[in-house]
Amino acid sequence: MSILAFVTAVAAMLCLSLAMARHHRDLFGRPPGRPRQLLYRLLGILGTALCLLLNLRDGGGEIGMVTAMGQLMGAGILVGLLLARVATAGMNNSRR
Amino acid sequence: MKLRQSMTTLHTWGGLLPSWLLFVVIFTGTLACFDKELEHWMRPALHGSSGPASASAQQISDWLADNVSAPLHAYWIHPPTERTPFWQLGWEEDGSGQRGRAVFDPVTGAALPETLGGDFFFTLHYNLHAGQIGMYIVGLAGVFMLAALVSGVIIHRRIFKDFFTLRPRAQGQRAWLDAHNLFGVVGLPFHLVLAYTGVAIFVAAYMPAGGMVAYNSDPLAFYHEVQGGYHRNELDRPAGTPVPLDQLVTAAQQQWQSTDTGWIIVEHPADASSVVSIRRRDPSRIGSPQDTLSYDAFTGELLHQQQTPPAYRGYIWMVGLHMAQFGGSLIRLLYGVLGLAGCMMLVAGNTVWLRKRAARQTPGLHLVQALNTAVFFGLPVASLVLLWANRLIPAELEHRASVEAWSFVLAWLAVTLATLVSSRQPLARARALLGVMAALALGLPLVNFLTAPYSHLLATFGTAPELALVDLTLLICGVLLAVAMARYRPRQPVPAARKTECGESEVTV
């Protein structure tokens, strides 16, 4: 279940990043429209809440909260590194 | 001067000056998350042993009586656990205060060869192996880190807009500033909590004046009241016949209705006042329960059951949150990853400082470059050399742990000397050191294979995952370092027109 919670955290962070024009442009070539931006934000918040709930259910209030925070921070760094990789690959492709 | 300007100065200098010390503290703290796994890995004599655990607390106590002749102030024993499958013994001599440590096979009860173990990194993390002075230095560095984190938040204009931003191909300092921000901002709650709890753990030692005044300069009285603990002063009368320790352990387990026994502490064992305190172990909670039972060592009478005051429970919760000994390997893995993010934040921050000033040739540039290399490369290299030494030094060598410590120190000195010798070629130096680290990390599983028949990856993969993971981590790190070395090439010089914007065009760690 920890893996599911971490996957949820990564998905939540990815949604929050896609709500930002720069990262959406890196992935899809254009910034998100206003409705899509709101949808990404909503999904990001829901994913964060789900990650928290899954961890609270598995680890209890005390340890679950710490695990959820750790997973969200780890997911944030992972998404940052992945987006950098995608952006770099995109730059290489456009040069070719 | 405006707030943001003054905070920028604080962040720049309050971050740079303690950064090398903070790197040592954070890197060793990250390793210390896995101190017990490393300790197990560093004791290959344990890996082949099989059979039911038959050694007992009394057997360990008897070994101490047979092998240490000096009168003891106290000694402490810990039974085997899942993460530390061996008996641990520590003691402090009366008068001199000299401490000793030994570890025993749980099956045979035989003493195992000396090693520094994972505890070496833990001690380096909190006091730099320099006692109270070291603890104060680390505490000061922690305060600087807190100040740098808070000022960093104030000066970061685009903290949310650039939350996930990392542009590795950006010119000049931009890429490193992105990395500094990513690892610092995303991991900010972790860095803040760990820096704060790290300082708060030793707050009574940093600011003892209040306690000393209130308790008539008797720190022991302060600690006993705060902890709700028990202490009996020495009577200076000869000791009687002690009750076997195993009998007291059984009594404690019956009292708790649990077999999770932690430390067994015997105070002044050669005096009639001797007390045996037995602590309950509970890794399922952030703050350990502090449920200690104290027995008379000669009658077995239960003298005291610890009733921890709420304030101390709060303190223990903070200690537990910092130490990451709860919640299993997932928590330790997360702490490990976020600890490495903290190290990367420091490396990137120092590189930003360098690149900002490279074009101007600011005084102290070479000193910062040299310190960066000596610490950011020296400590990981020395840690890997320590693990190599653990496998290569013969088990029967006297003072084996000291030889391991010397190998660590000499490896770090060697990197520092190499840094001084090659001060004019920072890029070639960094590339060479990446190669050295990759070779050390990739070579260690091989050395393990050649020297320890029951400890290498092929032997432990299915049977002892905690040992196999150490080798696998080394292999993964080795491959990543080798790739980093292969890709680590100076970029083409930036045309003069763009150079003013970008600063120096090469990485100068």
Automatic annotation (TrEMBL), chain A:
Source organism, top-level taxon: Bacteria
Keyword match Transmembrane: yes
One Pfam family matching this protein: DUF3325
Keywords, alphabetical: Membrane, Transmembrane, Transmembrane helix
Keyword Transmembrane: yes
TM stretches of this protein: 37-56, 68-87
InterPro entries from the UniProt entry: DUF3325
Protein name, per record: Uncharacterized protein
UniProtKB/TrEMBL annotation, chain B:
Pfam families: PepSY_TM
UniProt keywords, alphabetically: Membrane, Transmembrane, Transmembrane helix
Transmembrane segments: 133-160, 181-207, 333-353, 365-389, 401-421, 433-455, 467-488
PROSITE patterns with a match to the protein in the record: PROKAR_LIPOPROTEIN (PS51257)
UniProt entry tagged with the keyword Transmembrane helix: yes
PANTHER family: IRON-REGULATED INNER MEMBRANE PROTEIN-RELATED, PEPSY DOMAIN-CONTAINING PROTEIN
Protein name from the UniProt record: Uncharacterized iron-regulated membrane protein
Protein species of origin: Halopseudomonas formosensis
Phylogenetic lineage: Bacteria, Pseudomonadati, Pseudomonadota, Gammaproteobacteria, Pseudomonadales
